[in-house]
Request: fold
Amino acid sequence: MKNAFTVDVEDYFQVEGFADAIDRSAWESFSTRVGSSTSILLEMLAKHKVRATFFVLGWVARKHPEIVRRIVADGHEIASHGMSHRLIYTQAPAEFRRETRDAKALLEDLAQKPVVGYRAATYSITRRSLWALDILCEEGFQYDSSIFPMRHDRYGIPDAEAKPHVLTTPSGSRLVEFPISVLRYWGAKIPVAGGGYFRLFPYGVTRWALRKLNAQQQEFVFYVHPWEVDPGQPRVEKARATSRFRHYLNLDRCAGRLGRLLGDFEFDTMYSVLARRNLLAPL
Ligand SMILES: [Zn+2]
Reply:
């Protein structure tokens, strides 16, 4: 069973956990590391002959168009991670529409292909921002992967459908949703999809949980950020302790675990996985 391997392409200083310590206006003053860390991921994917979906932040694409071109040249899918990494539920709909449209146009120009997939910064499509799904439909997106079906301080719709499905937006349109994967186990929900959870749990636990999902005929989505394979990144000491814990936990183990994951499971782009489920048109 093919699962979706996804990468959210952003730099270490752009994560929501550091937003209190690093203002957006200061981003330009940081020396970027996203190019070299994305290369590490591209090399791993090439070695395992895996095609993935890269949700690229518009800010990164504008500053480093060569990263987008390289991802495309390697045969991967380009999708959108928005422009500015603002939480959707803190944006006005008009502002969200403008930057979503700008990022899509920019990415399509660089990729020379339609960009039809979207992932919100910090999975910030929640009950408060479901209106964003209508805007995604209107702006030409075919699928979204922003809903985390569990409770968390920054994101999550705890009772949301956990499998890939067609959802109905508030105004009645249809949009394909690939929710972030969780395993239901003895009444609990275990987040097994990647990121900080992948670095937190021992790899054996992750493999057990992902195998269980596949055994239930459920494809999972795995996500990782380039900065998670860059243990040498500068430390943001001003950030809150919880944010630093989440960000720096086991960074040095991530690349090794990824190598095992790529060997143990089968992956493809998110579009291909959804098309195989007949939720999207065949490529
Ligand atoms: Zn992000």
